[in-house]
Amino acid sequence: MPSIEDELFPSTPGKFKIDRSNRQLNRCFASTSTMFLWALFLIALTASYLSFQSFVDSGSRYLTASWGGIQWEKQVRTSAQIHRSGGISVLVTGATGFVGSHVSLALRKRGDGVVGLDNYNNYYDPSLKRARASLLSSRGIFVVEGDLNDAKLLSKLFDVVAFTHVMHLAAQAGVRYALENPQSYVHSNIAGLVNLLETCKAANPQPAMVWASSSSVYGLNEKVPFSESDRTDQPASLYAATKKAGEEITHTYNHIYGLAITGLRFFTVYGPWGRPDMAYFSFTRNILQGKPITIYRGKNRVDLARDFTFIDDIVKGCLGSLDSSGKSTGSGGKKRGSAPYRIFNLGNTSPVTVPILVDILEKHLKVKAKRNFVEMPGNGDVPFTHANISSARKEFGYKPTTDLETGLKKFVRWYLSYYGYNTKAKLVQ
Ligand SMILES: O=C(O)[C@H]1O[C@H](OP(=O)(O)OP(=O)(O)OC[C@H]2O[C@@H](n3ccc(=O)[nH]c3=O)[C@H](O)[C@@H]2O)[C@H](O)[C@@H](O)[C@H]1O
């Protein structure tokens, strides 16, 4: 298996050759007028190259065309192969993301077929995604590099494999980043979702879909703990609004086309191989580097709290949802009967305040944090979250077992090892 360095710096840079012959040029530059015309031509060529390049740069965040071909199809087919009786074949979107990589590995471990899809966008350090991809590849999971909005790619994937399930985890995550880049939420969480649903609806047979909604849909809801039947019409961030829109959109596809759909409201998921933009991760980085951390506080200096949920518990919830998803009834875009439409909270059911989270990190890191308390800015945050998980428990026996203390210990152990704190030379973060 190639190492992560090999993937980043391929040994064969390509087939581009520089033509050093100047005989042709000598003839062209024979007269001044020809030189002038030639100069104009070069300027036009450069201008069109630059505009093409900027088109490529702006598009490359999302779209790549590095798929297709006999070898590629063979890799997809092999990766989708099921190795247990009664197993399923799953297309996992966002497979090199935090939750996606863990779910892919768990499915593969129990013998299910898994094909990943990921666009490796640069919302956070793509090298972490490449490292996760390397791990997946070592377990025989092929990750297709491409974007949800690439309809041809999605339809090709379903031509090659009759996926029984789609685990849709690709998304623009993060509550506060929506202030900076609102369009990326629309691109991934709305347009990308619809594109995927269009493909699933048209597939024959149709897969069942399980996808990641968010605890943030509860928004300004004050009734605790949050139950699936509580109101979700007061989102506090654009992120939350796009996830809520996703719930409505998936309902439509269930209603019209008979797609079996399960939405999972994840509550602040954390753990090894996590997302660097999240508080527990960036706090750890700053604490180790001796930099201050900013802790938001609510009105009247009330601490914010989250129902932090350990990744292994989320993975159990995802697999339980896939196994109990029921079947889609339609085919080729035609509904043949009603199909299940479900929404579940996946949380830990025991909220912890942010300062206590920092206490636990300090204990595991054996370093004191430099705490800087500020009033919660109007950035989309909500004061607290708390999941009622009785529906998921009833439906597929969901039962979280990892408390924050234990989960953060596992995260810190991974973090120190991944970033080289256990060796003499610290790696650059
Ligand atoms: O459950 C979800 O659906 C979401 O969970 C996560 O959002 P959040 O619960 O906001 O997690 P996270 O950023 O770790 O902040 C945690 C706490 O630290 C506070 N916080 C944060 C940053 C900071 O600098 N200081 C601070 O006090 C902050 O105010 C908050 O109280 C996912 O990112 C999101 O993609 C989505 O999945």
From TrEMBL:
Catalytically driven reaction(s): UDP-alpha-D-glucuronate = UDP-alpha-D-galacturonate
Pfam hit, one: Epimerase
Catalytic EC class: isomerase
Membrane topology: Multi-pass membrane protein
Cellular component GO terms, alphabetical: Golgi cisterna membrane
Residue ranges crossing the lipid bilayer per the database entry: 28-52
Keyword Transmembrane in annotation: yes
Domain annotation NAD-dependent epimerase/dehydratase: ranges: 90-324
Principal place of residence: Golgi
Enzyme Commission number, as recorded: 5.1.3.6
Keyword Nucleotide-binding belongs to the record: no
Subunit structure: Homodimer.
Protein name: UDP-glucuronate 4-epimerase
This protein's UniProt keywords: Carbohydrate metabolism, Golgi apparatus, Isomerase, Membrane, NAD, Transmembrane, Transmembrane helix
Gene3D superfamilies with a match to the protein in the record: NAD(P)-binding Rossmann-like Domain
Localization per Swiss-Prot or TrEMBL: Golgi apparatus, Golgi stack membrane
Similarity annotation: Belongs to the NAD(P)-dependent epimerase/dehydratase family.
Recorded GO MF terms: UDP-glucuronate 4-epimerase activity
